[in-house]
Design a protein that fits this description.
The chain is about 45% helix and about 10% strand. It contains 20 helices and 15 strands. The protein has a 13-stranded parallel beta sheet. A two-stranded parallel ribbon has the order 2-4. Strand 12, helix 16 (about 395-405) and strand 13 form a beta-alpha-beta unit. Pfam families: LRR_6, WPP. GO terms for molecular function: GTPase activator activity. It comes from Gossypium stocksii.
Length: about 550
Amino acid sequence: MDTTSNSKHRPFSIKLWPPSESTRLVLVQRLTNNLSSNSIFTQKYGALDKEDAEENAKKIEDIAFNVANEQYDREPDGDGGAAVQLYAKECSKLLLEVLKRGPAEKEKELASQNNASAETFFDISKGQRAFIKAEEAENLLRPLKEPGNSYTKICFSNRSFGLEAARVAEPILVSLKNQLKEVDLSDFIAGRPETEALEVMNIFSAALEGSVLKSLNLSNNALGEKGVRAFGSLLKSQSCLDELYLMNDGISEEAAKAVCELIPSTEKLKVLHFHNNMTGDEGALAISDVVKRSPLLEDFRCSSTRVGSEGGVALAEALESCTNLKKLDLRDNMFGVEAGVALSKALSKHLDLVEVYLSYLNLEDEGTVAIANALKESAPSLEVLEMAGNDITADAGPTIAACIAAKRHLTKLNLAENELKDEGTIQISKALEEGHTLLKEVDMSTNFIRRAGARHLAQVVVQKPGFRLLNINGNIISDDGVDEVKEVFKKYPDVLGSFDENDPEGGDDDDDDDDDGEKSGEGEANEDELESKMKNLEVGQEE
């Protein structure tokens, strides 16, 4: 399968999860100190001795890490911020629970929690990606054969099953299918010849047919139409699915039609991820039918699927019925203006949207303005807005700024790889001035921004509590302008992204108001004049 993305170069982003081993060790040390040293809590509930404190700290951190890691697995393309917050919250909760219990109870309770987690989730995906043979499958899957086990979630990802190993797994899955709720078979036939892979999929499908699953992940298996149909008996038997993942599966037009045909019931579906396939417009029409039958859909991802204008319009119209939508990711397709305008009509009905990813869709100003106007009136709790790489110019700046001004819960804004220049940048900066105390990340890289726009944006975001990253790399900021921005962030140098792709000379010959041969100092004066003229500009003011 050709999984080459048809997008432009992606801007740099920071992943906050998972934490490094050293970070985890530091946290264990802090937990140990909190359990054993004098504080208002240990005065009230009693302190642990150093040895017990360290043992319990390790268990607390391990449980919290596993809980947070499950959260991150559900949102692998996020920055990990939600997982980090959950990690800290779980540590705090478990720490207090340990202190509240007497020394004799704390270890017993933590062991019980760890065992409960282990007993319900069976995972063989850790470690190196590898082929497994029948004997190894017998050993790996032995816990699933124990009488009375309580496993409800299994993950066979990252291990490649051949026929012999599949036949070992078959009776075990049959014995478990009435208790299973979540099944992850992503990347479980890697490197197998097509004939063998299809037979393995048929075996797993038949073994799990009739199970009542809440979540099914078949990603990263290069399914194609044959693979989708190999899982036909399993797919047809599902009527209670909450989550379905079909990412990077080589799903063409024909395979998409097979998906639509073989999933008869999607009334309860809340999550549908269809990232990185070769679906195209015709395939998008089939997926649109699935979306139309999914009124409870909350999280829809159809990014990098080679969908053009016709398919984009179909998806947009289908999304109009999904009024519970919270997360929408359509990045890296070829929608164009018409599909962008159609999408704006759907977005006007989505009051619960929290995250919107619309980068690299060829929206241009017209599509962008339509979407920004729609979002301004809907999605009051919007936290993430990404519209990078859409050929957006400063002409769309006032509308984008008006939309952003209304989104006081915004945590991340990505408008990279556009042509907003200083004018659009300052308009957007002014929209962020009042409120927006939750803002954590802004990416305005590669936007032909110069000194004035960079300075104004920096002065606004540096005042936001907890702000983590400003990326204005790849612009045409003068050396003096870069120094000014660095001075703004002198107390928080780690918050400011790199300038290694900035071109300080790039704007010398591109000043609308400069004559040929004018010096860069005069260009900077024009930048200051632009900023001065825009100081009193009201957000939402039309030109």
